[in-house]
Automatic annotation (TrEMBL):
It comes from the Bacteria. PANTHER family: DOMAIN PROTEIN, PUTATIVE (AFU_ORTHOLOGUE AFUA_3G10980)-RELATED. The keyword Signal does not apply. The lineage of its organism: Bacteria, Bacillati, Bacillota, Bacilli, Bacillales. This is VanZ family protein. InterPro entries: Phosphotransbutyrylase, VanZ-like. It comes from Shouchella miscanthi.
Length: 150
């Protein structure tokens, strides 16, 4: 059951990424603007809508965050499915995330108002690597904690 649920989490997350990538440019921009409005509500002294670089930062941060989660989810699913080295699982998780990032950018080439960008693949890959790194750090911490005498 753990194996199935962990792979379902990966598939659902990939579907969410696909759904968000399938939004036409105007809708996607509106969603980012909504995030800026929410941040502005929390920090009213700054009007974030006036700064294009902040809008870009939010959009690229969403890429990084989405793939950070995807990388970690791949690690969890691979742990439940394959009894191989941690290094090999990390490699598979990274390559899988990287290939999905490429397919996501190619997909965006066919969505009105969107474009596929190699820089987004790099940002997505960085996010996946960070997610995998966080998973590895937590895994090492937990295993060292379990080995320490009590």
């Amino acid at each position: 059951m753990k194996k199935i649920s962990s792979w379902c989490a990966v598939i659902i997350w990939m579907a969410l990424i696909f759904y968000l990538s399938h939004q036409p440019g105007g809708e996607s921009s509106h969603l980012s603007g909504g995030v800026l409005t929410f941040i502005h509500a929390l920090i009213p002294m700054f009007d974030l809508h006036e700064n294009e670089w902040i809008h870009t930062f939010v959009r690229k941060g969403a890429h990084l965050g989405a793939y950070l989660i995807l990388g970690a989810l791949f690690m969890i699913a691979l742990r439940s499915s394959y009894q191989t080295t941690l290094r090999k699982r990390a490699f598979i998780a990274f390559i899988s995330s990287f290939l999905y990032a490429i397919s996501d950018e190619v997909h965006q080439l066919f969505v009105p108002g969107r474009s596929g960008q190699a820089t987004d693949v790099l940002i997505d890959s960085l996010g996946a690597a960070i997610g995998i790194g966080i998973y590895l750090a937590i895994s090492r911490f937990m295993s060292s904690r379990n080995r320490s005498p009590r």
